[in-house]
Amino acid sequence: MTAKELKNELEYKNKSAYDSITEDELERSFAYAESYKLYLDCCKTEREAVTYSIAMAKARGYEEYTLGGEIVVGGKYYYNNRGKQLILFRVGEGSLEKDGAYVLVAHIDSPRIDLKQNPLYEDSGFGMFKTHYYGGVKKYQWTAIPLALHGVVVKSDNTVVDICIGEDEDEPIFYISDLLPHLAKNQMSKTLAEGITGEGLNIIVGSEPYREEETDGAIRLNLLRILNEKYGIKEEDFLSAELTAVPAFKARDIGLDRSLIGSYGHDDRVCAYPEITALFDTKNTEKTMFAVLADKEETGSDGVTGMQGELFTDLLAEVCEAVGANYRVVKSKSKCLSADVNAAFDPNFPDVLERKNACFINCGVVLSKFTGSRGKGGTSDASSEFTAYVRNLLNEAGVSWQMAELGKVDQGGGGTVAKYVANRNIDTIDVGVPVVSMHAPYEVVSKLDLYMTYKAFCAFLA
Ligand code: MN
Ligand code: MN
Question: How crowded is residue 299: how many other Cβ atoms within 10 Å of its Cβ?
């Protein structure tokens, strides 16, 4: 045997999906990216993602389920959890106790700049909003870019006012200022973490005063007047509102070859969208499947809409009850792909990743046996057996995939919802998409990696 033959036989190398993809499939992957870009533009908050995903599900025959309702074999259901978390499920004809449920989980919240509960003030000729950032943001990245305002205001009579300002070209946008370089001597000598502070992320909302008569806070008053005329809200209504500033950018192709997509919120819509479309597209009627779109991942998955909450297992228990399966047995046989993004190797920042165990753009969907930080702290760590199961599944389906951990040892790290599913006695592994500039207002993914993730989920549900 020549050395070359022996190499081919024994060595493992990360390969670009471009090496093996057919022209036909390449075309399909670019077409798939177009529908994903639409999803990105319509789903900048978890509430919008829930609304849009429900519309997609309803169009495909999914019915709304409420706890305690009827579940039948062959049924397709969705559970809308407070408008912020969505759980889609299909009840299969096969034995739930034998195979368990096939579970996909992704999250639909993204880092952003939330308004404080009492946000509106006036200072030096500007009307401003105080903010409290949500999730892990590099604060300086959120200055001097166009922002849109999204969210809901629930008034004292419980009516819900939906707000979305700044997405259409003819609508105004919002803005957080940064310092001009000419006067930034002190700021530039600070660290990136200190250059822009949390309390410094104040949003410019306007500058025109109420001019009927002279009064204190006339700019503020004029803004309240506009809000009242347009939305029927008063200042106290802010106290029960969820309003957030997100980048006003649209998803766009990046590069002369259009092979990449730039957008706000790839993390984690780039997994959420493949997850629900794979569920919609599967022809399998044997398996019982769940697709969970979770909220609050970016802040620790706590609360009634986060993956630490009981809802997913409550629904699994309801399905077990309906088909007469033992819930505890079903959990022990269930399998979960916890879908979240990973850090793509970035040639501008090669030092933080270790090449042999990093994920690369266009090398396909990423598996991570474990996440966490330091000595593998805070991870569920998938077993060798389950990792091999997924590895074989992807190989047999012709999916381009790679194995990676997030960053060098002791460089930092990150967690996902995987452990919250695994803690319920369900085998779980992290899968996802390599992202460049994760958590920035504009993130980058590759179209092939997106498509390979969809293909991986299809294989899991096939
Ligand atoms: Mn994520
Ligand atoms: Mn994230």
Answer: 14
Answer yes or no: are the C-beta atoms of 320 and 327 closer than 8 Å: yes
Is residue 323 within 8 A of residue 73, CB to CB? The reply is: yes
- Strand-pair category, 288-294 with 443-446: unpaired
Which of 118, 170, 166 minimizes the C-alpha distance to 145? 166
Q: Which stretches within 282-374 are classed as H helix? A: 311-323, 327-333
**297 Cα: distance to centroid of ligand 1 (angstroms):** 7
Q: Nearest ligand to the C-alpha of residue 269?
A: 1
Task: Please give the distance, rounded to the nearest whole angstrom, from the Cα atom of residue 95 to the centre of ligand 1.
Answer: 33
138 CA → ligand 2 middle, Å: 12
Residues 6+ apart with CB under 8 A from 25: 451
Poorest-pLDDT segment among 68-82, 138-152, 368-382: 368-382
Q: Residue 162: is the preceding peptide bond cis (ω within 30°)? A: no
Question: H or E stretch including 55?
Answer: helix 46-59
CA distances (Å), 341 to each of 120, 285, 290, 303, 444, in order? 35, 29, 20, 22, 11
Per-residue pLDDT tens digits for 211-241: 988 889 999 999 999 999 999 999 999 999 9
Give mean pLDDT, residues 269-293. Answer: 98
pLDDT at 312: 98
With 0-12 / 13-18 / 19 or more C-beta atoms within 10 angstroms meaning exposed / middle / buried, residue 55 is exposed
**Can you tell me which residue has the tokens 């993956």?**
307
CA of 229 to the centre of ligand 1 (A): 38
Q: Quote the pLDDT of residue 104.
A: 98
Extract long-range pairs of 176-179: CB within 8 Å, 24+ residues apart: 176/113, 176/142, 176/143, 176/144, 176/145, 176/147, 176/201, 176/202, 176/203, 176/204, 176/245, 177/143, 177/144, 177/204, 178/140, 178/143, 178/144
Which residue do the tokens 């993602």 mark? 49
Nearest ligand atom owner, CA of 298: 2
The single-letter code of the amino acid at 61 is G
Looking at every residue in the chain, the average pLDDT score rounds to 97
pLDDT at position 295: 98
